[in-house]
Amino acid sequence: MFEHAMHAVLPEIIAIIEIIGIIVVTVGCFKSFVQYVKFSVLGEDVAFVRHNLGLSMVTGLEFKMAAEILRTVLVRTRDEIFMLGGIIVLRALLSFLIKKDIAEGAQSGHKSITGVHIDRE
Q1: How far is Cα 105 from Cα 116, in angstroms, rounded to an integer?
Q2: Which one of 14, 17, 38, 56 is separated from 62 by 20 to 30 angstroms, measured CA to CA?
Q3: Which residues, 6+ apart, have CB-to-CB distance to 62 below 8 Å?
Q4: What is the phi/psi pair of residue 112, to 5°?
Q5: Cα dihedral sign, 31-37-41-46
Q6: What angle do CA 7, 9, 14 make, to 5 degrees?
């Protein structure tokens, strides 16, 4: 009985978590774009915009990975397990690479949104 209820409710929970991940990334992109335009026009450093965008992408990916982990409960075949495992590995790799990029940008402190160093006098 519990398994039947879980299989009935879990797809909706997974969909909601995936939508949350999509919303986090979308809001982060729009917010970062607005900040980028604002600070570019003012001639100020926009390095933090890249940091904020990266954080929103990582957070969104983590929501998506959480949904994929929950989806493992619904998996029935070996092919589905391999497909799901591949998706989780790719998302984890993306998350790792974005976190690494954020850390490198924070250490240098001089990168702009494009990664090009520009000295202002």
Answers
A1: 11
A2: 38
A3: 21, 95
A4: -90, -175
A5: positive
A6: 95
Among the listed residues 106, 95, 99, 25, the one whose alpha carbon sits nearest the alpha carbon of residue 65? 95
| End-to-end CA gap in the chain | 70
What's the confidence (pLDDT) of residue 64? 92
Cβ(17)–Cβ(23) below 8 Å: no
Nearest in space to 21 (alpha carbons), one of 67, 60, 48, 68? 60
**Residues 6+ away with beta carbon under 8 Å from 71:** 14, 84
pLDDT digits (tens, 9 = 90+) for 61-117: 999 999 988 888 888 888 888 888 888 898 889 888 888 888 877 776 544 444 444
State pTM to two decimals: 0.73
If you compute the radius of gyration of the chain from its CA atoms, what whole number of angstroms results?
19
Tell me the residue type at 25.
V
Selected residue with higher pLDDT from 3 and 52: 52
